[in-house]
Structures are given as C-alpha cells and as structure tokens.
Design goal:
The chain is 73% helix and 0% strand. By secondary structure, it is mainly alpha-helical. The protein has one domain: MetI-like fold, CATH 1.10.3720. The longest helix is centred in the first third of the chain and has 33 residues. The relative contact order is 0.14.
C-alpha cells in the first residue's frame, strides 16, 4: 500500500493536468450544449414547420445515436472531408451536441411550463418577442431548468471519460496510467472514482447556488446559510408565492 501511495504522490502533477483537461471538456461542452439547447428548444416549439421540423430531426438524431460513435465520427471521419480538429475540440463538440439535444427538451418543457397568462400579459404591454422572452418568460423557465440541467451536467462530466479513446490525457487516462504504475486495480480505480466524485460534487454545489439565485430573483427562495449549504440536512422549504394567472413576473422588472 505504501508503494501505491508513493506512486499516487509522484503522479499528482499529472493529476492536476488531467483534471484541467476534464474540466475544459466538461465546461466547454456544457456551454455549447446550452447554446444548442436554447436554439433547438425554441425551434422545436415554433409554429413554422421549416424551423420545427429540422429542430426535431437534429434532436432525435443526436439523442438516438451513441456518444462514443459520434466522437469517433468527428475525430476519424470528418478529416476525410477536410475538416480536422484537435482532440479537445472534438470532445467539446461531440459532448455539446449530444447533451445539447437532451437539454433542448428541458428548455422546451420549461418554456411551456410558464403560465400562458405570462405571455398574454407581456403581449398586452406591447413587448417585442425577444423582449418578452428575455425579461419575462426565460427568467421563470430558467429557475425550472436548473435542477434538470444539473443532472445533465453530471452526465456530461462522466461522458467526458470517453475522450480517452481519442488519446486525450484526461482523468480517465490518468487512472489507467496509475493502474499500470501500481499494478493495483482496486487502488487505482478507487482513486479515479473519488476524484470524479469530488468534481461532480463541486459542480452540483455550484448549480444549487445558481438555482437559489434564480429563485431569489423571482421571489421564490431564500439565500441558504453556510451551515445549510455545506450540511447534510437540506434547508427548510419555502413555499413559493402564488402568482395570479393574469399577473406577470420578470427577472428584473418590466421596463
């Protein structure tokens, strides 16, 4: 065991580099996934068949095909057509498109969950479509999206381990190399699991804070204390105020 610990200590610098690559893939993929989700989410609920049709085709294609095959296709097939990307860019694009397709359903469902009266009230105030979405609809839908997006973010983190197969030196690669150095499967993969868990926990904690902030802006939540945030006991539930169907709630007040 002492030899295993020494091998782990010797590879701590490589661990930092591997975690950085994993975070670059995760956060880069998450940003791209959010852009894709918003575009496809709104596109899937538009009245125009020319927009709704292609949006649904893209969503179903990326949800219905394997992530690892998508990574291999972008990495090995696209260069045959003259489009070559670095391995990190390939991973970000594949993760962003795949999880963006899943997240688009979260966006679409959350937008449709906003009461119809909110749309009508914004229209009555003669707001443009972009203004009503930005100031009235999206802030309410955003608070509903975050818990489901947090789950997808953790799935994206775990999906980034597939980038090991296109020679990226990520956390999965570091775990495999540790196993080769120690010849101890239990120790090596347990160390890898713990590192992934720490990253996932930090991402979840960040998304929880983001959710609290979104709810506070709508007057639906309170700021948790540090004890509540870091403790095992969940903070007390605060009943959301009821909004009249004809009323309108905005992210920062309609102007």
């Amino acid at each position: 065991m002492s030899d295993d610990l020494q091998a782990l200590i010797d590879r701590l610098p490589d661990l930092g580099t591997s975690v950085l690559v994993t975070l670059e893939m995760t956060l880069g993929g998450a940003v791209l996934a959010m852009v894709v989700a918003v575009v496809l989410g709104f596109g899937s609920r538009t009245r125009s068949l020319w927009v709704r049709g292609p949006s649904r085709v893209v969503v179903e294609f990326f949800r219905g095909t394997s992530l690892v095959v998508q990574i291999f296709w972008i990495f090995y097939v696209l260069p045959q057509f003259g489009f070559k990307m670095e391995a990190l860019a390939v991973a970000v694009v594949a993760l962003g498109l795949n999880y963006g397709a899943y997240a688009s359903e979260v966006v679409r469902g959350s937008i449709e969950s906003v009461p119809k009266g909110q749309w009508e009230a914004a229209t009555a105030l003669n707001m443009t479509w972009s203004h009503k979405v930005r100031r009235v609809i999206f802030p309410q839908a955003w608070a509903l999206m975050i818990p489901m997006l947090a789950n997808l973010l953790i799935q994206l983190l775990k999906g980034s381990a597939l980038a090991y197969y296109i020679t990226l030196h990520d956390l999965n690669f570091w775990t495999v190399e540790l196993r080769r150095a120690t010849a101890d499967t239990i120790f090596s993969y347990t160390a890898g699991l713990l590192v992934y868990f720490v990253i996932a926990y930090l991402l979840t904690w960040g998304m929880n804070l983001l959710e609290e902030r979104a709810k506070r802006r709508l007057g639906r939540g309170t700021r948790p204390s540090l004890r509540e945030t870091f403790g095992l006991k969940p903070p007390p539930l605060v009943e959301a105020p009821k909004v009249p169907e004809s009323g309108m709630t905005t992210g920062g007040g309609a102007r």
